[in-house]
């Protein structure tokens, strides 16, 4: 537990992404099983114990500390776990140095906690821990350990620790359960990479680079529309179907109608969109899909008013056959042939755009007015399906170039009607050394429903409060639209946006893949 | 609330000859002020920190250490009078004695006696050992005028040795970086250096220009600070693997930018609270304070066992609450300008 609480402590104070990766990697290398597996589970959000209610923790501390002094302390410190970790009296006669129980033992104890036994168990554990240990314990036990680390970052750290490819980690991640003993055995080279052919696991997506300048030769590249939904992977194996988002999150429960309609074992890649009577029976814009995102349970009304389907554009597996090593043209043929076996209500095919030359294609792109179209995709005809973003294979060519994906950093309460909402958002882009630097502030562009969602996100992901401002975990990607961007000496990032507004909430995108300052700076048109 | 003073109902109000004002404590029968925040005719100064020692007084009485610090900071003062620790002097109608407070070099509690009543004004103090100054001496009294900078039960400073070990471990783990420690230029900086030396760190320690004079002064008073060198424009970029000390205000300043990838550390009692450390962009919080923590405050009150506790500055609410819970008569004085943000 000491190594773990030390890691948590240091992550809190570490700002640069690379330094965080290094801290976690060092920890994973130096810590024995099963502790490191449990730690990895807690960092990736796979360890939601919630064995104990915050009220119990409060009651325990009030048995030991005057409630008034507790109240003053809590007001000053802010965080319940931190307050209690500091206030908890050292039990008399405890040996020094303190013999701290290992993380694995703490987790097993909490997992096995019988009903009504929380108080006694927590007391015993608290008495055996030091200040950082008690902090980590309360956070773990109440299911509130949020330190602003994304699952992807933790997996990257694993890959760095054991010198493996992070995409390979992704490949087996969904087949694993904490404390991931086979993962570490593989990492340390004791076994071959585990295989999970009979269960639906996430396969890392192939991603596109933005097309920056110049044209491509359409004999080498095929063009498709870029749809304004969310990227989704449908994986069925052994008769079980899972839907995964861009971040590898399992979103099956949010879209049961799509999962239920999948009739064959396969892994398909496509765009999740909404299409129903209310949408005029054609694919709707992202806003309609937004209604369906982030819901744990889906109501009948939702299914009726915002029915989802997937517009397919690639196939990774047909049955047990891995097609990723085949060129795009082959895979495209296979996909087209598979369409007959898929129900049309839930699956259709993303068509190819026929254009005589690049100029004609550019004109088509300019002329596209369909709300569900975001731009164009250009895919190299001979490209194998390779994980991640490889140069020169796939390009995305968005319609509006002045859009960047930023990460929310701070939120502030609005004024007037909005004073109860956190409605002003400061967002940042990644700097070269992996730090997030604020690039702008926006308080418009979202619907009332989105505002509610954003407000909820802020409240549930606060890591710090400064007066009316909250700092949030750097995990939510906001697509920010703006009129222009300029150099600025007043901002640490060196850039300032003109009229930024939130154009979309990208819950489907991992924070690390938000845009870099470099990308943003390229949009500057001012003379130097 | 049952006050401990209730067994002397016929006496005048305890300490009625001591007049607290927002700008300081005025001692009427001696016609002098203690730690006034504005210039006065006669000031008695507990220690050299700027929130206690101001310039411009006509006459100042303080320990030789405090007077020397004031001379470095403010130049020549008016009339000065040295108060040796433990020596009683008469000022007007009041017997005055300076007693070590264990806070910084020269720091003192001021013991006042008048008409059989003893009042101790603690100034700032701490109870744990500090190699740069004489240790706190508890003086039983009728009224104990205490600070409460860390007057909340969440403040329990950890062992100094462990915090210093943290800094040295970080230095060893990051040979390509430097460890930049923000520390109050008076007291904290010299204590950190002495503790680093005691832990076996013999390498040169580099100083921000603002620290030099006070380190020289501490040396004159017998602190062996070892090999100290200034950070200059020439050597700035070449300080990999070194410890550098600067005032807290310089941590996130332009000055720090040219240093080789510093691990930003800060030595302060406030580092106990995660949020305080994060506000300062601190990567390595070192919980090291020159003020009493909660246990030291309450232990000291028990030890000097006063009839009344007066609280000058800090988180007085919680200490008042503690006094009430322990049947001790207490009041807050609401002195202004005494918040110690960096210590
Ligand atoms: Zn002081
Ligand atoms: Zn002070």
From TrEMBL, chain A:
Any GO MF annotation of the entry = DNA ligase (ATP) activity
Q: Which UniProt keywords apply?
A: ATP-binding, Cell cycle, Cell division, DNA damage, DNA recombination, DNA repair, DNA replication, Ligase, Magnesium, Metal-binding, Nucleotide-binding
- Matching InterPro entries, A to Z? ATP-dep_DNA_ligase, ATP_dep_DNA_lig_pp_1105_fam, DNA_ligase_ATP-dep_C, DNA_ligase_ATP-dep_cent, DNA_ligase_ATP-dep_CS, DNA_ligase_N_sf, NA-bd_OB-fold
Kindly indicate whether the keyword DNA repair belongs to this entry: yes
Per the UniProt record, which EC number(s) apply here? 6.5.1.1
CDD domains cross-referenced by the UniProt entry = Adenylation_DNA_ligase_Bac1, OBF_DNA_ligase_Arch_LigB
What sections of the protein cross the membrane? none
Q: What is this protein called?
A: DNA ligase (ATP)
What organism, scientifically named, is this protein from? Sphingobium subterraneum
Classification from the root reads: Bacteria, Pseudomonadati, Pseudomonadota, Alphaproteobacteria, Sphingomonadales
């Amino acid at each position: 537990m000491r190594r773990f609480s030390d890691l948590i402590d240091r992550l809190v104070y570490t700002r640069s992404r690379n330094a965080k990766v290094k801290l976690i990697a060092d920890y994973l290398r130096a810590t024995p099983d099963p502790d490191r597996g449990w730690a990895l589970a807690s960092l990736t959000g796979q360890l939601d114990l919630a064995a104990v209610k915050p009220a119990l923790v409060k009651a325990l501390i009030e048995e030991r500390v005057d409630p008034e002094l507790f109240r003053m302390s809590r007001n000053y410190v802010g965080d319940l776990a931190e307050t209690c970790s500091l206030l908890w009296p050292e039990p008399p006669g405890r040996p020094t140095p303190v013999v701290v129980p290992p993380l694995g033992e703490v987790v097993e104890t909490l997992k096995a906690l019988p009903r009504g036994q929380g108080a006694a168990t927590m007391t015993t554990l608290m008495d055996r821990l030091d200040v950082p240990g008690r902090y980590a314990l309360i956070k773990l036990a109440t299911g509130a350990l949020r330190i602003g680390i994304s699952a992807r970052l933790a997996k990257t750290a694993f890959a760095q620790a054991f010198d493996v490819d992070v995409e390979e980690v992704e490949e087996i991640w969904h087949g694993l359960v904490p404390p991931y003993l086979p993962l570490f055995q593989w990492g340390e080279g004791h076994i071959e990479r585990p295989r999970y052919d009979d269960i639906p696991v996430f396969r890392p997506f192939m991603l596109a680079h933005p097309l920056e300048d110049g044209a491509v030769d359409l004999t080498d590249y095929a063009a498709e529309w870029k749809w304004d939904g969310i990227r989704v992977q449908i994986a069925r194996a052994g008769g079980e179907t899972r839907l995964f988002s861009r971040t590898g999150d399992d979103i099956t429960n949010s879209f049961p109608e799509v999962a239920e309609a999948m009739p064959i074992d396969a892994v398909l890649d496509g765009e999740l969109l909404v299409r129903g009577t209310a949408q005029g029976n054609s694919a709707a814009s992202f806003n309609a899909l937004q209604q369906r995102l982030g819901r744990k349970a889906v109501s009948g009304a939702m299914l009726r008013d915002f029915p989802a389907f997937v517009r397919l554009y690639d196939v990774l597996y047909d049955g047990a056959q891995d097609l990723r090593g085949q060129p795009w043209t082959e895979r495209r043929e296979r996909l087209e042939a598979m369409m007959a076996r898929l129900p049309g209500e839930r699956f259709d095919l993303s068509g190819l755009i026929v254009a005589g030359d690049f100029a004609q294609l550019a004109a088509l792109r300019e002329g596209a007015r369909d709300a569900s179209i975001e731009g164009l995709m250009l895919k190299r005809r001979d490209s194998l399906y390779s994980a991640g973003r490889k140069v020169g294979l796939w390009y995305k060519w968005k319609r509006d170039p002045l859009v960047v994906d930023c990460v929310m950093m701070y939120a502030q309460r609005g004024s007037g009607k909005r004073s109860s909402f956190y409605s002003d958002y400061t967002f940042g882009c990644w700097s070269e050394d992996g730090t997030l630097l604020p690039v702008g502030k926006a308080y418009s562009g979202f619907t009332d429903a989105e505002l509610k969602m954003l407000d909820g996100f802020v409240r549930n992901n606060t890591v710090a409060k400064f007066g009316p401002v909250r700092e949030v975990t750097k995990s939510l990607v906001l697509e920010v639209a703006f009129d222009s961007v300029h150099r600025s000496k007043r901002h640490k990032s060196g850039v300032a946006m003109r009229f930024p507004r939130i154009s979309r909430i990208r819950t489907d995108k991992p924070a690390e893949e938000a845009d870099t300052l470099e990308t943003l700076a390229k949009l500057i048109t001012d003379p130097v | 609330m049952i006050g401990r003073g209730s067994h002397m109902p016929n006496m005048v109000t305890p300490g009625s000859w001591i007049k607290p004002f927002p700008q300081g404590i005025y001692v009427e029968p001696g016609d002098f002020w203690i730690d006034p925040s504005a210039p006065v005719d006669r000031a008695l100064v507990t220690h050299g920190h700027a929130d206690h020692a101001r310039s411009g007084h006509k006459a100042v009485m303080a320990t030789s250490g405090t007077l020397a610090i004031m001379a470095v900071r403010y130049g020549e003062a008016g009339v000065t009078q040295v108060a040796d620790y433990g020596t009683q002097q008469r000022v007007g109608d009041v017997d005055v004695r300076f007693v070590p407070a264990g806070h910084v070099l020269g720091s003192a509690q001021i013991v006042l006696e008048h008409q059989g009543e003893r009042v101790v004004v603690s100034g700032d103090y701490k109870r744990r050992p500090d190699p740069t100054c004489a240790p706190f001496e508890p003086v039983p009294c009728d009224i104990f005028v205490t600070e409460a900078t860390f007057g909340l039960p969440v403040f329990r400073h950890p062992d100094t040795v462990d915090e210093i070990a943290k800094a040295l471990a970080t230095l060893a783990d990051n040979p390509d970086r430097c460890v930049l420690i923000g520390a109050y230029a008076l007291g904290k900086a010299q204590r950190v250096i002495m503790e680093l030396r005691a832990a076996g760190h013999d390498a040169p320690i580099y100083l921000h220009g603002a620290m030099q004079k006070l380190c020289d002064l501490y040396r004159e008073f017998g602190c062996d600070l070892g090999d100290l060198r200034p950070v200059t424009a020439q050597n700035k970029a070449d300080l990999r693997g070194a410890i550098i000390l600067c005032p807290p205000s310089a941590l996130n300043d332009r000055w720090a930018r040219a240093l080789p990838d510093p691990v930003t550390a800060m030595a302060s009692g406030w580092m106990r609270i995660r949020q305080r450390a994060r506000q300062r962009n601190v990567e390595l919080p070192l919980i090291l304070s020159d003020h009493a923590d909660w246990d030291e405050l309450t232990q000291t009150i028990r030890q000097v066992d006063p009839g009344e506790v007066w609280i000058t500055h800090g988180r007085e609410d919680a200490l008042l609450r503690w006094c009430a819970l322990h049947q001790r008569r207490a009041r807050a004085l609401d002195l202004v300008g005494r918040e110690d943000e960096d210590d």
